Amino acid sequence: MYRRIFLLVPYPSSMRSLALTLLALATLPPQAARGAPTLPWFISAKRAAKLAASAQLLDARDKALRARDALPGATPVDWRTFSQRGTHGGLLLSAAVLTRKLRALGVRPEVAVLVLGDPRRGWGEAGRVVWMLRAAGHRRAAVVDGGVAALRRAGVRQLLERPARERGNFRARARLRYDASMARVRRGLADGKTLFIDSREGREYNGATPYGERRGGHLPGAKHLYYKRLLDPRGLLLSRAALRRRLAKLGATPASTIISYCSGGVRSAWLTVALQHAGFRKALNYAGSMWQWAAQPAATYPLVR
């Protein structure tokens, strides 16, 4: 994967004994040496097909969906592998543990990571994995728009067989980006300057708890936007202009601070990735979401219906 580069540098004639110096640059991958560009948060299936030979492709669908419609050559990945459990909701693991797990997966900072999901039948898992990678500092992680179905429509039936996976060298940031802690959520509720978006189903927003929350309801003042309403009938993300129009109806501008949440930070991670893609640079995901918030005392962590 790495390329060894040797530079022959002639010295002045007064230093004939050192006629040339051999420099070995043994640790820079070729893409990193050139400065690998940042990818958009979503990329088309057609572009993904062109990048596939040099990228790492992850299949974030659940086991049942992968079993029914396998895509040979893509590496299966489960968002839970990188998340805490229990009342912590979907909070990410520590930077040290993320680093170890992502290196074991073969993740490298200069190599694009393209993540596949099933936007119509899934839960936004591809968005969660991309959000996790971006939060940890990877600039070249992207959701493949339309997921596996779109990749097949683009003519990709299986990916090239790849050599045995090498250990990666990616290092996760100690301070996560695009992430809102529970304390940050409380500050946003108090300052009145933060737009909260509940990305769950309407019944959940209204108080139902079908996915294990200890209390029902939504954050005070939160707007409701079920994340799948940002997809067209084929499961493709709406255009950036259409996304901005949808958000404008909620009172958001590209300058707004937006915190999205759901039950465990998966659907809201997908929404955060979509918002970042549309130019909402202050969009954050509350990864703990209702699994964490609703487990706290009601008097200081309120929910309304």
Write out the strand line-up for the largest beta sheet, numbering strands in chain order: 3-7-6-4-5
Q: Would you report the number of β strands?
A: 11
- Level-1 CATH class name of the largest domain: Alpha Beta
Shape estimate: globular
In N-to-C order, the SSE pattern is EEHEHEHEHEHEHHEHEHEHEH
* Share of β-strand residues: 5-15%
Average pLDDT value? 88
- CATH topology of the largest domain, by name, is Oxidized Rhodanese, domain 1
Strand-pairing-aware structural class: alpha/beta
Please bin the fraction of helical residues. Answer: 25-40%
Specify the CATH architecture of the largest domain. Answer: 3-Layer(aba) Sandwich
Give the N-to-C terminal Cα separation: 54 Å
Flag low-confidence runs: 1-34
Radius of gyration: 22 Å
Domain unit count: 3
Largest sheet, in brief, is: 5 strands, parallel
What do we call the CATH homologous superfamily of the largest domain?
Rhodanese-like domain
Per DSSP, the total helix count is: 11
